[in-house]
Write a structure and sequence with these properties.
Blueprint (H helix, E strand, L loop, with lengths): L2 H12 L12 H6 L12 H11 L6 E4 L6 H8 L4 E4 L1
Parallel strand pairs: 1-2
Amino acid sequence: MNNNKIEELKRLYAKGSKHSNYQILPKRLIESLPPHTTEVKSRFEEERLTYILKQIDIKAKTVLDVGGNTGYFSFELLEKEASHIHYY
C-alpha cells in the first residue's frame, strides 16, 4: 500500500466517526499500517468469523456482506478463498 493511501486511511480512522473504529482491521490491512496506528474496539469479530466458517464452506462462493462497516469480514472471507464479495 502506498504512503498516500496509508496516510488517508490513518486520517479516516482518526476522524472518530461511528464506523471509523467499529471493527478490528483485516489482517492484510494491519500488515500495511504502522504499529499502533489505530485504536479499534473489537466486537468479537474473530470469534464470529470462526463460527461462520464452521457453519459454511465459503470456498469458491460469492458472499453478500450487508452493513460491512470497515470490511473485516469481506477481506477475511476473501483470504479464506471466497470467490467474490458483494459489499454494501
